[in-house]
Amino acid sequence: MSLNINKAFDSEKNLWEVKLIGEIDISTANSLKEILIKLLEEKEIDIKLDCKELDYIDSTGLGVLIGILKRLKSIDKDIIIINPKPNISKLFKITGLDKIFIIK
Amino acid sequence: MSLNINKAFDSEKNLWEVKLIGEIDISTANSLKEILIKLLEEKEIDIKLDCKELDYIDSTGLGVLIGILKRLKSIDKDIIIINPKPNISKLFKITGLDKIFIIK
Amino acid sequence: MTTKCANKSEDSKKENICMSLPSKPEYVSIVRMTSSVIANKIGFNIEDIEDIKVAVGEACNNAVLHGCDSNIFKVEFIISEEKFIIEIEDEGKGFNVDKYPHPDICNPKESGLGIFIIKSLMDNVEVKSSPGKGTFIRMIKFLNEKDKAYN
Amino acid sequence: MTTKCANKSEDSKKENICMSLPSKPEYVSIVRMTSSVIANKIGFNIEDIEDIKVAVGEACNNAVLHGCDSNIFKVEFIISEEKFIIEIEDEGKGFNVDKYPHPDICNPKESGLGIFIIKSLMDNVEVKSSPGKGTFIRMIKFLNEKDKAYN
Ligand SMILES: Nc1ncnc2c1ncn2[C@@H]1O[C@H](COP(=O)(O)OP(=O)(O)O)[C@@H](O)[C@H]1O
Ligand SMILES: Nc1ncnc2c1ncn2[C@@H]1O[C@H](COP(=O)(O)OP(=O)(O)O)[C@@H](O)[C@H]1O
């Protein structure tokens, strides 16, 4: 019923590795936004989102990711999404967002 | 959100071993009652209730157990409750039923 | 849709969630679940959440068991920083709150444990009932200081 | 307590659960949870339950985001053997249902996905809105034959 976010800098691959645990919804999307923006203020590099333990995301969460992706794309960087659960993959698919995010 | 009941006859100890899995409440207590009564119609012996995977019980469930216990006590048999979770132990304690059931 | 709920109280820090459901056994677990989700959000510890769930379940059982068929019962969750109030109301047959059967451990019975369990698990319990009209029960659990600090 | 809900419908096989909640983000997950508990009871499979949860969440998001402060929103769950209807109503600012922004994948935006997602996940969706008065959305998921047989 809440969101935990673990972040680490992967110096070898030069990217932010962010683990999302819990639910991204209208009450937690803002804290995700703030954390991702802070990371980019530190270093504007690729962000890898590990969604293995992400149970839920909705349009407010997708909106945050779209906003961050637009900023990264403008400097040729990316968001890479790994280990999404079936319900999360489905949402990226029906919205067509699987075509603009890198999903593994 | 539902109740599963696994029953087996322990011929060595001459008792019914009944595993309760899920929740015993107003909507499932009756099926517990029917199953236990059927067992006693087959053989009137001790009943051992394994509550390891029992998540919830309320007064309707306790009422069923009290009814069966009264029948068993009248022929000097018992109900033995094993592995109750803390919330279930608490309910037996506050109602004083821990003094009339054998709880291990 | 005809749901109507004031969702307002004297104290602006309080917030209400109202529900109404058919008086049937299969709906009781929905109220139990909802109560535990809310209790968890308020910040109660696991033992308190279990207590609330059982107490709410017992009150709903009574509303359903002693309520009229094809009727509804209502639940109101009143949330504030220091306590959780739950009110459950039915339009069932009601009873005399001064002389309903109390449990007697020397002579255990199949019924009569519900209200006793609610009073044991909650900090404050009030029952009002009018025979023939219905029953109202209000129960309160206070958030202890430790859990408050944790929030 | 002032909750009022008809909980009755033409078809006696239908049963209703009504809720009303404060228009605040922290209450949306309670409605989501409740919808998934009910969907599970009706007998929907896991994928359908997830779809219902997301669609209900999106509709609640809109009620809360575009609703008025210090207001409430209402949810009605209508349960029958072959389908699950969910109605969500707010008294917020409303909008013109004929020309709200639709998503465009070539030009992705931070908002405007909610109703599109609801329509993709549910079998039938109806939106009524009066600018200045509020919005009503009804969504239906049908139970497929396989899950019905399983019940
Ligand atoms: N909501 C209610 N409507 C009518 N009668 C009630 C209600 N709640 C309790 N009672 C009466 O009080 C008695 C004691 O209730 P309770 O302690 O919950 O035990 P139980 O419901 O198991 O009998 C019930 O047997 C019933 O006669
Ligand atoms: N309940 C509502 N009350 C008022 N306006 C709404 C409501 N639901 C949707 N809208 C309007 O329709 C638009 C599209 O909604 P939606 O597809 O859910 O995307 P989002 O809410 O992310 O913008 C919203 O931006 C808003 O203007």
TrEMBL record, chains A, B:
GO molecular function annotations of the record: anti-sigma factor antagonist activity
InterPro entries with a match to the protein in the record: Anti-sigma_ant, STAS_dom, STAS_dom_sf
TM region positions: none
Residues in STAS domain copies: 18-104
Pfam families: STAS
Domain of life: Bacteria
Family membership noted in the UniProt record: Belongs to the anti-sigma-factor antagonist family.
NCBIfam families referenced in this protein's UniProt entry, alphabetically: ant_ant_sig
UniProt name for this protein: Anti-sigma factor antagonist
Organism annotation: Paramaledivibacter caminithermalis (strain DSM 15212 / CIP 107654 / DViRD3)
Automatic annotation (TrEMBL), chains C, D:
InterPro entries linked: Anti-sigma-factor_SerPK, HATPase_C_sf, HATPase_dom
Gene Ontology MF, one: protein serine/threonine kinase activity
Annotated TM spans: none
UniProt superkingdom: Bacteria
Record Pfam families: HATPase_c_2
Keywords assigned: Kinase, Serine/threonine-protein kinase, Transferase
Residues covered by the Histidine kinase/HSP90-like ATPase domain: 21-141
Name this polypeptide is given: Serine/threonine-protein kinase RsbW
